[in-house]
Structures are given as structure tokens and as C-alpha cells.
Amino acid sequence: MSTLFVILLAHVAATKVSNLGRCSQEKVMLAECLKPHQIYISSTLSNVTGEEILDRVFMNKFFNFTKKVATCIGPNIACDRTRHYKYFLDALTFVGESLYDPTVFGCLQEIEPHLHSCFGYFYNYKEVMILTKLSSATQGVIRCLSDSLQSHNSLCGKRATEKIKCAVIALRLIAKNYHNWNKGKMKVAVFNPKKISPKPYKDIICGL
Predict the structure, then answer these.
(1) Burial zone of 160 (CB within 10 Å; 0-12 exposed, 13-18 middle, 19+ buried)
(2) Exposed site from 87, 171, 173, 182, fewest CB < 10 Å?
(3) Contacts of 75 by beta carbon, 8 Å cutoff, 6+ apart
(4) Contact yes or no for 185/178 (Cβ under 8 A)
(5) Which superkingdom heads the taxonomic lineage of this protein's source (predicted)?
């Protein structure tokens, strides 16, 4: 997840700025929003390996960063590129607030041995960072998670279980949209947790 944001930042840095136009102004605004975090970006995010996903302190700091930048950008943006960045920032923040909530993270630690089989769709944590594989495999992971969590619901409350499912659904959307964005085919969207549940999972209530 943090690797994804480093890639997005590289695109920001590589885009030339002209002196005219709303989109140029928004690019300058985005750079200003990132400016207070330059040390964190260069010294920490540029060196992520993927293993940090298991470190709650590290990930909470990362998601606090995504939330601050998203808040700085604000809702009044008009250009596709800026709106895409805002989408990813909001989606990543939602995943962080869902999974790294103390109760939910504690639940994940408790049921971890029972969940390994669900992530058999990926060979190892590095493959989770290959977003095309994440997009295609996540539906199977959601089904497996649903079955596993239901079998061990005494270890986690209903809301914690739903938050885990919602986070996985959001990760699938991030993967799908990043894949489209990388090909120049991403449609402009606002990330809304209340509308992310796919039809087969309408019983999952996100965004509460």
C-alpha cells in the first residue's frame, strides 16, 4: 500500500508544470500539501519493502499521512489527475482505519493461523503488492475470509469481521483502479465506503 503511494508520488514529480490553468494550480497545491512530509517520504516511504504491513505503528503513521494529505487537498478539485490522487488517498485511509483499529488488528492477530489458507491465492506478501494479482484474486479471498471468520466468530465481534471484509473489498477497488490508472483508463470517482460492497456482498455494510 505504501509502495503504491510512492509510485503515485513519482508521477507527480515527473509531470511538468505550466504557468496557466486550473490543473497546473492543482498540481502546485498537491506539491504544497506534500511539502511538510518530504522527510517522511524520502527517508521512510522510499525504503518500504512490504513487510511493514505487519507493523501496526508504522502503518498507522502511514495512514495518518494519507489522511492529512487528503484533507489538505480538500473536496474542491476539478482536474482528473488530482481527483485520482484524492481517490487513492481516501481509499488507503479507509483501509488503514478499518484494519489497524486496535480491536480489528487484535482480531486479525488472534485468527491469523486460520486465515493463512485464504491468502494461498498469493504466494507471499510481495505478491499482494502486485496489484493486478490482487484485483483478480480478491473475490476468492473475500469468500474465504467470510467462511473463516464465520467459523471463528467467537474470536471477533461482528463489526470487526465486517471491517476486515470491507478493507479487503476496498483493496480490490484500489488494485482495479490503479491498474486502469496506469493504463490511462481510470474513470474519475469519489471514494465512498458506503457504496463499495459488490452485489454478491450486499450483506456487508461498510462506511459506518
Answers:
(1) buried
(2) 182
(3) none
(4) no
(5) Eukaryota
